[in-house]
Amino acid sequence: MRQILMIMAAMLLTCCSKESDVKAQPAQGTDDMGKTLVVYYSYTGNCKDIVTELTKQITADVLEIEPAEKGLKYEANNYALGTQLLNAIKANPDDADSYPAIDPVNVSLDGYKNVIIVTPLWWSQMAAIMQTYLFNNKMQMAGKTVAMIVSSYSSGISGVVNDANRLIPDVTWAGDALWINNSNRSNSSALIEKWLPTQNFQTSGNLEQKLYLTIGGVTKTATLVNNTSTEALVEQLKNGDITYEAHDYGNFEKVGPLGYTFPQNNEQINTVPGDLILYQGSNLCIYYDTNSWNFTRIGKLDNMTQADIKTWVNAGGGNVTVTLSIKDPTTKVSTAKADVGENVTYTLQGTLAQAGTKGFVIENGKKIFR
Q: Within 13 Å, how many C-alpha atoms sit on residue 355's CB side?
């Protein structure tokens, strides 16, 4: 029976072999220790497109799940075959032989705090191929924080959610699943952007580190990625804030020299609004539109829309002064007593400010931005 189902699965899912050249490996330099793993199966290509949009907005490793048998022709009765696969699982959901075979998966989940499942819906249920992966890895998934995106034509996703709860009962759900369907698929990028902040993902290591960026007296936070560039930046910021002038470039970013040179971890990146990028080791770019280049990812602004970012950075409106900190400026010293005469100016760390110091300072007992 299992062999028959394997052949059926291959006949049903042959078009996945066309995507084999994009089967992703763990992101460069993570050594399976990244914060988040995206696991997906794509039959028509819709889930693949969703993952492409998702990974423009978060830093994650990607794992594609594929059926074991390849190369058979696409059959017109694929719907009947798919139903048989699902019915076999329904009949004996606790029997491993009920699930269609998939390609061996060599990526361990040990290094991941979070897993995002991206799966199609088949007849109001989770696609059988993704069910196989979750069934086989339920022990590794235990204790993870899990989020899910479901793709369908029009059917609701409650059955898929129920399948996930049955297959991986010992996970913590980050939040509600995101449903992308035929009516909203063209808006998937915005849907994902709105959905991500609703998910309560775990953090670990340097990814817990928040970067505070202040422009025009308004402070925003960003979550740093984990690489040697951010480690060096954080070490430098432990000595004090960094303030620099940023200018518009290419109608997609504000960029300026930090005054320090940091290690580079360059890779080809398709940026999205909110990305923080280190360019040539010494320039920080705040993206308010898209671009593609070989440079180093630093982090991403938290919970900001493109319109919010453009307003905050004064996109297209001239230079701005940016102050970087690893401490929330709103919780730092708010007043300082002038005890050595009039017009004394202090930094927020309580030391005398040098002439020309820019950013937040304490002047005559009041916190100002200059």
A: 0
Which residues sit opposite 361 in a β-bridge? Answer: 347, 368
Whole-number Å distance between alpha carbons of 99 and 92: 9
Give the closest residue to 201 by CA, choosing from 54, 52, 3: 54
The CATH label, of 3.40.30.10, 3.40.50.300, 3.40.190.10, 3.40.50.360, for the domain at 2-198 is 3.40.50.360
What is the CB neighbour count within 10 angstroms for residue 369?
A: 15
| Model confidence pLDDT, tens digit, residues 118-161 | 999 998 999 999 999 999 999 999 989 999 999 999 999 999 99
Query: What is the pTM (predicted TM-score) of this model?
Result: 0.51
Q: Is the pLDDT of residue 357 over 80?
A: no
C-alpha 287: how far from chain center: 16
Domain assignments of the chain as residue spans, ordered by start? 2-198, 206-328, 332-370
